[in-house]
Amino acid sequence: MKITKRIISILLSLALALGAFAALGISAYAADGADTRLRFDKNGDFRILHLTDWHCDYPLPAVHKQLVLESIDEAKPDLVVLGGDLSEAPHEDQPAAIKEICEIFVKAEIPFVITFGNHDYMHDYTIDEMFAFYKEYGGRYFIGSDENPELFGCGTCSLPVYSKDGSKIAYNIYCFDSGDRAVTDGVDKGYDPVHADQIEWYKAKSEELRNGNGGKNVPSVVFQHIIVQEIYDKLFPVAKSYNAGVREYETVTYDLVPVPDYSNVKEGYIFEKPCPGYYNYGQLDVMSKNGDVRAIFCGHDHYNSFTVEIDGVDIINTPSIKPHILLRKINWGPRAITLHEDGTYENRVIMACELAQKEGSKLISAGAVSDAEIFIVKIWKALVDTSLPFWSRVTGLIYNL
After folding, report:
1. How sure is the predictor about 8, in pLDDT bands with cuts at 50, 70 and 90?
2. Do strands 246-249 and 220-223 pair parallel, antiparallel, or not at all (unpaired)?
3. Distance (Å, whole) CA 390 – CA 317
4. pTM of the model
5. Edge to edge, what strands does the sheet with 220-223 contain?
6. Where are the domains of the chain?
């Protein structure tokens, strides 16, 4: 009897130890038992590649694959975040298409995660089934999780990044499923946002991290597909007249003037109206008051690459990696992000047209872009960059009258 109790005690201790080990953020790809937690390098840097809005066919077009491979080589990421709206393959090909995408990162031995987009809901699979495909084909390199299956959507989770000495969580990465369409009483209102239950989960997780960090916030970044609604408060005036076209979100209507308020844009370009969720459950307000989130990285709006600071949080749009039409190629490519152990971060869009000009690039031969397009885009970029300070001053003056 004592021996049996002793065995049970040992097994229970082992189970608790394994649970504690998992709670420290040990990744699923630790096949050999090594400590493979996400971790800052010896220089105190952690690199992320944000690849969003592929909208690709099956088999994967050479253009998409080449851009992804060269972006990986350029950014040398410690983590890839797939920003949603990936494969547009028909229902019967969807599993094979996801497998083909996952194989890129498995072969490169890079951990990756996905934040689902609205188009990922359109393949006659449940979003849980879609998540299972990524989990199956990504194997030990897919480190996403559906941390609380009771939450809206699938794949909402947090990924701790440890200090270079491994002693503490120095940064945290939140991933949210921002859903598909907001339907109320059978009426399609537009896009979905991050939901209230996910925000409550974030608050609890943030507090848990704070308590484990001696009462200090753990610096964090957020990834989701659909941008927050407050972006319109910074880019467009609240509608008082209806002569420029309008867009309504819940109880607020905005004038869609031809040129947005560039005085509030820290960097980057805007080539289309942002498309946030119709409802607002207070995500940005909560994160701003908490004070831990440095930036919210979104996709969804293919031709935008702006950074707009709202209440202490940078709202950042990463453009699509799907090939753009000619002049919008100025804004085409993934985003490379570097987190610093001191709590800061920096980021840039890896412009595909610039990547194509590097020695050894195969983007031109893959048909992604031509020499003539690169020449035209260079001129266009120079014109746009020169005019942005002018538009910043003019719109800032007009909108603040």
Report:
1. very low
2. unpaired
3. 22
4. 0.92
5. 157-162, 169-175, 220-223, 293-298, 313-317, 307-310, 265-267
6. 35-399
Q: How far apart are CA 46 and CA 39, in angstroms?
A: 7
User: Quick one: pLDDT band at residue 4, thresholds 50, 70, 90?
Assistant: very low
Q: What is the mean pLDDT of residues 265-279?
A: 97
Residue 283 Cα distances to 52, 203, 275, angstroms: 21, 10, 16
Helices (H) and strands (E) in the chain, counts: 9, 16
Q: Does domain 35-399 have CATH number 3.60.21.10?
A: yes
Average pLDDT, the chain: 92
The DSSP line for 115-159 is ---GGGG-SSS-HHHHHHHHHHHHGGGB----S-TTSSSS--EEE
Mean pLDDT for the stretch of residues 88-112: 98
The C-alpha atoms of residue 16 and residue 49 are separated, in whole angstroms, by: 34
* Distance of alpha carbon 119 from alpha carbon 102, whole angstroms: 18
N-term to C-term CA, the chain: 83
User: Which residue type does 88 have?
Assistant: E
DSSP state of 273: -
